[in-house]
Design brief:
about 290 residues, Rossmann fold, 13 helices, 8 strands, about 15% strand
């Protein structure tokens, strides 16, 4: 299966039209990307999952790429983001879906599984912290230093200027030099992301995920989240420069049915750095095999 065989459509979510890529036939799997990517983040997973007998739905999250882009910062609050996922599950035609999320997509997936357990079959998280654990760990110097960029993103206008200057040099270098396994992103991949982020208002929309949710109110809500009922797999690149492995501590308390798979020589962009290993884990876990 190639990208040429992917089906592109739009689905009405929580007041926003989401651009969605579909492929395959079978039980649904929804793949949620992170910052500052889009559906293309899962280009190496979509064909494998479709060939394994799953129906794959991959949205551009609201504000990204070809999806609707609300101007109001509050439109990017987690309550709206999880409702978008609920709409995607309903659009599958099934009562439940497997949910897979990376980075911000993973944060949304954690929250969605806690708030809509009846819509979740299995949950898979790639290098994304559960907010309850994140807000506990970020109070300590080790994770606080790793999270310096979050405070920077909360500023107004300056982050947009810095990230977009010199033809988005900072973001280009992030994709080129950030992964522990080099060439995780080729030139075509990087240009696709930059072109999408260069659309009017796109970079601000992506930053609004931080500005709308990294607040004291979010911290308080995260402390009372219900435990995740779904069988859960967490895949974690241990060389992540922004999210330390200590964020895995206590996961069994928030997700009692969790299984953790660490990839020692991969960093944050794990599905791009170690696609073969990640794909094997995804398919085996979703099929119920024990060799995950």
């Amino acid at each position: 299966m190639t990208e040429a065989s992917f089906h592109h459509e739009h689905i009405l979510a929580d007041g926003v039209q989401l651009h969605v890529v579909r492929a395959g036939i079978g039980p649904p799997v929804i793949l949620l990307h992170g910052f500052p990517e889009n559906w293309h983040s899962w280009r190496r997973q979509i064909p494998v999952l479709a060939d394994a007998g799953f129906s794959v739905l991959v949205p551009d999250l609201r504000g990204y790429n070809l999806s609707g882009r609300p101007q109001d910062k509050n439109a990017y609050r987690l309550e709206h983001l999880v409702r978008d996922v609920a709409a995607l599950v309903h659009a599958t035609g099934y009562s439940r879906s497997h949910i897979v999320g990376h980075d911000w997509g993973g944060v949304i997936a954690w929250m969605f599984a806690g708030q809509y357990p009846q819509l979740v079959d299995k949950l898979i998280i790639l290098n994304a912290p559960h907010l309850k654990i994140y807000f506990q760990k970020v109070r300590y110097p080790r994770q606080m230093l790793r999270s310096w960029y979050v405070l920077f993103f909360l500023l107004q206008r300056l982050p947009e200027f810095v990230l977009s200057s010199r033809n988005y040099r900072v973001l280009r270098k992030m994709f080129e030099r950030g992964p522990a396994r080099k060439l995780a992103f080729n030139t075509e991949d990087i240009e696709q992301y930059i072109e999408a982020l260069a659309s009017p208002g796109a970079l601000t929309a992506a930053l609004n995920y931080y500005r709308a949710n990294v607040t004291m109110a979010t911290m308080g809500k995260s402390a009372i989240l219900m435990p995740i009922q779904a069988e859960t797999l967490v895949i974690w690149g241990e060389l992540d420069p922004a999210l330390g492995i200590e964020l895995l501590d206590g996961l069994d308390e928030v997700a009692p049915r969790v299984c953790i798979h660490r990839i020692p020589d991969s960093s944050h962009w794990v599905q791009n750095e170690a696609p073969a290993e990640v794909n094997r884990m995804l398919v085996n876990f979703l099929r119920g095999r024990k060799d995950t």
